[in-house]
Amino acid sequence: MEQQILRSSQWFAREGKDGFIYRAWLKKQGIPAHELEGKPVIGICNTWSELTPCNSHFRELAESVKRGVIEAGGYPLEFPVMSLGETLIKPTAMLYRNLVSMDVEESVRANPLDGVVLLCGCDKTTPALVMGACSVNLPTIVVSGGAMLTGRHMGRSIGTSDIWRFSEELRSGKMSTEELAMAEAGMCRSDGHCAVMGTASTMACMVEALGLSLPQNAAIPAPDAARKVLAHLSGMEIVKMVRDNRRPSDILTREAFENAIMVNAAIGGSTNFVVHLLAIAGRIGVNVTLEDIDCWSTNIPLLANLQPSGLYFMEDLYYAGGLPAVMNALLPHLHKDCLTANSNTIGDNYRHAVSYNKEVVTSLETPFNNVSGIVVLKGNICEQGAVLKPSAATPRLMQHTGRAVVFEDIDDYKRRIDDPQLEVDENSVLVLKNVGPKGYPGMPEVGNMGLPAKLLAQGVTDMVRISDGRMSGTGFGTVVLHVSPEAAAGGTLAILQDGDMITIDVAGRTLNAAISPEEIARRKAAWQPSYPVAQRGYVQLYQQHVEQAHLGADLDFLKGSSGSDVARDSH
Ligand code: FES
């Protein structure tokens, strides 16, 4: 058999001074030269950090990957990249998604790697790592960290979606601070990311649906021994991927993205899926648009009964058969010929999967909800689009006209939302400006803004809310997000005023303010941007180069790929 020329041989097979330097400094870690001769060198890109609690078990997971790599005849080298913990990072982890993607891209390209294993967990760590790896396009496999065990509080199951309910119950006096403290103690019971179909689990499902991981990657709980087994098998698989020269560009075809959109609809995945999938497509060079997300979601019913769209938790999904059970049910719609990381097609991988619990994963014939997916709205408020998750919305509000109650920015909202004098009723439409990619750099998850306290006290549970921001994947409500162009970029959202009548028609896919084109033009002529502009550093770079949400909110100069060619040699 012909000997494969490995990329890493450009470092380790050299003679003279260069080879000496490359090899000698690895010997200081106890690695003899023969370990790197002719063996695929596999980078393990680790987002372990004590500042990212969802990824705090990744050192152990990396050890399992290493054992698999070694068993298959490769050599593993683990390296850190910046990690993004959703709960601790301010102002929002999304501000740094693109920065981490650069860290990953340059770390992978610059080093003597033949393939890479991405250890992903908390929300943004998955898209950031996948985006960076796509821009290099070396053989890549994803190992997700897995969700934590279901939380428990006063005899019932809880997950991150309950935080929003607890918060409103506390504000309306239905919950005491003591009960809230008890819930806090029972929420996070083990290693792993959020236990519901929030953004982290949505991302884990996305990579499996795209074919970038082994089957069952999405739902094995973090503390389950099967997660380590999957990590070991993924370590073995990446060595094979290098030998077969199977790269992300072979897997991430247009059809693979369509599959991911359909799967996201079937699981009731997070709206954050939109900006991340579009950004990944932009890196690998596949044309996917906001309209595609609506188009490929339509007619896909809700097949997984998971919070926040349903009742159950990620642990329950695994016991019901995991994502394979969902993908099996969805097979009549999916592109079955798409290639996956293990060299099988989607059809091969999922043809024999079954649901062990029809309460959690059902069939196309008996869906939990005929309405699912992500709807894209267009209109004079959002010429380039806005998104809404119908399975998390209140059906009667999906066709609604109401008077706008406008907040100029998040501080204005916080100042006035609970003011007893605020002119608002349950039919009003809450509008929040300047929380888009530029206006509040990183586009924070404030779109599902809390309702006015006086309406909560009256028992109001949902209202139409519109913003250029995002919503946590664990959030719910009739919430229009990602309005594009955003207010800070001079979109029509910027000139909405209290009292404007706004009509949302989800079935018709429209969102309009009853303002004439002449009045819009008059208000825009008088408009001045009013968001803070960063004067230095990464945030300045971000504000200058971030694209609008309908394009994935990547930095414009990061689109596409620089490939895996080694940069100019300095030795
Ligand atoms: Fe990390 Fe929810 S906070 S996944």
From TrEMBL:
GO terms for molecular function: dihydroxy-acid dehydratase activity; iron-sulfur cluster binding; metal ion binding. It comes from the Bacteria. The keyword Cell inner membrane does not apply. Residues 39-349 form the Dihydroxy-acid/6-phosphogluconate dehydratase N-terminal domain. The keyword Lyase applies. Keywords: Iron, Iron-sulfur, Lyase, Metal-binding. PROSITE patterns: ILVD_EDD_1 (PS00886). It holds the Pfam family ILVD_EDD_N. Residues 359-553 form the Dihydroxy-acid/6-phosphogluconate dehydratase C-terminal domain. Its EC number is 4.2.1.9. PANTHER family: HYPOTHETICAL DIHYDROXY-ACID DEHYDRATASE (EUROFUNG)-RELATED, HYPOTHETICAL DIHYDROXYACID DEHYDRATASE (EUROFUNG)-RELATED. Belongs to the IlvD/Edd family. This is Dihydroxy-acid dehydratase.
